[in-house]
Design goal:
Shape: globular
Number of domains: 2
Order of helices and strands: HHHHHHHHEHEHEEEHEEEHEEEHEE
Largest sheet: 8 strands, mixed
Radius of gyration: 20 Å
CATH architecture of the largest domain: 3-Layer(aba) Sandwich
CATH topology of the largest domain: Rossmann fold
Strand order of the largest sheet: 3-2-1-6-9-11-12-13
Number of strands: 13
Strand content: 15-25%
Distance between the termini: 42 Å
């Protein structure tokens, strides 16, 4: 049986195709995912195992059966797959949890954050987006010279606790617990009359021609607002984020000044981005910068 999963396929469809050939335990997990992808996306591993009547290691083995390292990257691939299947423009997508994103490609994210902190040396006022890579970036700013830091990330605020030289601000807005951030149109109105040197921005998906996109439509609106009040836009994103967009697009490539990513980004995509006027830094997690 061919159990390979190729990006661009419907992951739920692949599982449904394989159901007759899966063993009994895997069929239980497959049925759980097909019946309620949202529950699988957001339930703790212990609850998924209990509700599927299998062991926790069996759930992990199921994810590895389809070529993933474990549950977090399976869930992120599932979210992207479901987004591609969404038939209605502007519809809501099932967003991966913060904990899943945080453990993915950690070495690459740390290297990106380290390099990006050096780029912030001349900044006096910045916006830091919410997200796992930007949180690591914020941790690198704890010893940086004083600056004004606006952020939508509650995790970023917590990371900067105990760095009194900085003025740290949160915009008005509603708390989105699933992303540990502040969101909503109040964010836009807070930012409307402000100006910042640089926005350090994440993205759920990046296309070298079409630009940046994210899972949440409110987040897309506020990201646009953050871009509009920033002189420079620096995108921090590991190479797995460069994939076909099927989400809420919010930023064209020509608005981006710099992308800091890792050496997993192909020469072809790097050249496309450079041709669009973007400065691309590909950082080796083990040291070095490939221009």
């Amino acid at each position: 049986m061919d159990t390979s999963y190729q990006p661009g396929e419907s992951l739920v469809g692949v599982i449904a195709r394989d159901m007759p050939d899966l063993n009994k335990a895997f069929r239980r997990i497959g049925a759980y995912i097909i019946a309620s992808p949202d529950r699988f996306m957001h339930k703790p591993l212990q609850e998924i195992a209990r509700e599927s009547n299998v062991s926790e290691p069996t759930v992990v083995r199921f994810c590895r059966h389809y070529g993933f390292k474990g549950v977090p990257d399976f869930r992120i691939a599932l979210a992207m797959s479901l987004a591609r299947q969404s038939p209605v423009a502007g519809s809501s997508f099932i967003e991966p949890g913060v904990s899943d994103k945080a453990v993915m490609n950690l070495d690459q994210k740390k290297a990106i954050a380290r390099f990006a902190a050096a780029l912030a040396g001349t900044d006096r006022s910045i916006i830091v987006d919410s997200g796992s890579t930007t949180q690591l970036f914020a941790s690198r700013l704890r010893e940086a010279p004083a600056m004004v830091i606006m952020t939508t990330g509650l995790n970023v605020v917590e990371t900067l606790r105990g760095a009194p030289q900085h003025t740290v601000m949160l915009p008005a807005g509603a708390i989105r617990f699933e992303s540990n951030s502040v969101s909503g149109r109040l964010v836009e109105s807070t930012l409307a009359n402000m100006r910042f040197d640089t926005l350090y921005l994440g993205a759920d998906s990046i296309d070298p021609l079409l630009g940046l996109s994210t899972y949440n439509i409110d987040e897309a609106h506020q990201n646009t607002a953050m871009i509009n009040v920033s002189q420079r836009v620096v995108v921090l994103a590991d190479s797995t984020k460069f994939r076909t967009p099927a989400l809420h697009r919010f930023c064209e490539i020509d608005r981006i000044h710099t992308i800091v990513t890792d050496t997993g980004l192909s020469d072809e995509i790097a050249e496309q981005l450079s041709a669009g006027g973007v400065t691309v830094h590909r950082i080796d997690p083990h040291g070095g910068d490939q221009p």
